[in-house]
């Protein structure tokens, strides 16, 4: 079991508020956990970290979230630990 690292950047300058942010999982092994860091393009103090267990990600090729201007909202019945 390993933990894979991913980073996503919230980019309101180039994305609509209704846009979904995709986190690709296609190279993840079945027993790998995910550590996701989300940062903001214009706020260097914004940094959110999320952990997902391998069991949460089972049979998923990706996970998605939206940014409402203040919060990260997860799609598809997934909630980070």
Describe, in short, the structure shown.
The chain has 81 residues and is mostly beta strands. The chain has strands at 3-10, 20-24, 33-40, 43-52, 62-67, 72-74. The chain is globular.
Give an overview in words:
The chain is mostly beta strands. It is 0% helix and 49% strand. It is built from no helices and six strands. The chain has strands at 3-10, 20-24, 33-40, 43-52, 62-67, 72-74. The chain has a three-stranded mixed sheet with strand order 1-3-4, with no helix packed on it. It starts with a strand and ends in a 7-residue tail after the last strand.
Which short descriptors sum up this protein?
81 residues; mainly beta; three-stranded mixed sheet; three-stranded antiparallel sheet; 6 strands; 49% strand
What is the CA-atom radius of gyration, in angstroms?
13 Å
Which ranges are low-confidence, i.e. pLDDT below 50, for 5 or more consecutive residues? none
Count of discrete alpha- or pi-helical segments spanning 4 or more residues? 0
Percentage of residues assigned to helices: under 10%
Structural class: mainly beta
Largest sheet: 3 strands, mixed
In N-to-C order, the SSE pattern is: EEEEEE
Shape by Cα distribution = globular
